[in-house]
């Protein structure tokens, strides 16, 4: 545990350095936004603003100050909204987390079900699932979003097409976000199930006269659960960054749309905070998956 904790701290520290350095090297001077876009700014006034916000300090000093404040929960003040970045994240994070959770339920339930169906039935069912998942992964999310909005939002009027944070509002965005992940999870489930069906203990169980349903649930699916859980966790962790396109397309006020607005307006404190949050969430989810893996699969515990 100490080794894992040290690795997490080192990864977050390196990531924070890269994020701060990228924003520091990005084109555009934050002094212009801090000055309120005024014209004919005197060099003395610009120097005063730089000194006030410590922008004239060396890069390493600025980074250490920002990192120290971030550790204590102070993520700075937004240049665009003139509000604390932590408050902006707290207001928008529930929408993004709700969207990711909704999409995770969809792709886990339907992805695993399709993978199991393809592995057990085989034949035309397997071919149909493989063809459908291949098509799903080849369609970009913004195309899926446009199609769903046009069909279910505009023509049929079944779902709202913009705004809101209720479950009904999040249905179309969650389906859009889950579609590509569903294809990945179904493929992994199918492959893991096929591999497990060919193992000796499954052959022995079948030869002993156990019902096929019991063999699939107790031996095949249970043995394939490790790779399935791992992939579901990895896909869920990466979804936080994938909400950028979805939230923009559906007009949701989440951290994805906040990041887009911050990048467009050179709002460096918000950009840095959102990126750091996405990386921290990814690391946290993957760590949980890694800790759960030995509980699901005793073979992983023996390897550890």
Automatic annotation (TrEMBL):
| Membrane topology term | Multi-pass membrane protein
Matching CDD domains, A to Z? TM_PBP2
Checking Gene3D superfamilies in the record gives:
MetI-like
The residues that cross the membrane are: 99-120, 167-185, 228-250, 270-292
Q: Which residues form the ABC transmembrane type-1 domain?
A: 93-289
List the subcellular locations.
Cell membrane
Where is the secretion signal located?
A: 1-25
Superkingdom as given in the UniProt entry? Bacteria
Q: PROSITE patterns under this entry?
A: ABC_TM1 (PS50928)
Q: Tell me the keywords, alphabetical order.
A: Cell membrane, Membrane, Signal, Transmembrane, Transmembrane helix, Transport
Tell me the protein family, please. Answer: Belongs to the binding-protein-dependent transport system permease family.
What's this protein's name? ABC transporter permease
Print the organism lineage.
Bacteria, Bacillati, Actinomycetota, Actinomycetes, Streptosporangiales
